[in-house]
Amino acid sequence: MNPTVSQSSIHAPIKEYEGLFVTLPCRIATKNAGQMTVIASDRSEVIVHMLAANREPQTKYVEIMGKVCDDNEVPEILAMRVTDMGNDLDEVQIFSLWIV
Questions:
Q1: Which of the following CATH numbers is that of domain 14-99: 2.40.50.140, 3.40.50.300, 3.10.129.10, 3.30.2310.20?
Q2: More confident position, 6 or 99
Q3: Which of 2, 45, 61, 85 has its Cβ near the most Cβ atoms within 10 Å?
């Protein structure tokens, strides 16, 4: 796979993209200070570590741009950007993974 080419993968496990930057539309499951757990395209949980510059998400659905760091059993993303996407999105349509 060429990491310079954007690709979409509807049920691809995030772990396959370790070390790459991705854009992940997802649903927030839980939020804590500086960290949140989201539900990814394959319905698995992903831990998102937010940089201090990111503001706290205000909606149920967000788009995360960050680097996949898979050192643990649960995949993790270091978020460079978190964008609110609203509270009423169609889950079937938003779940996809873009490699940037």
A1: 2.40.50.140
A2: 99
A3: 61
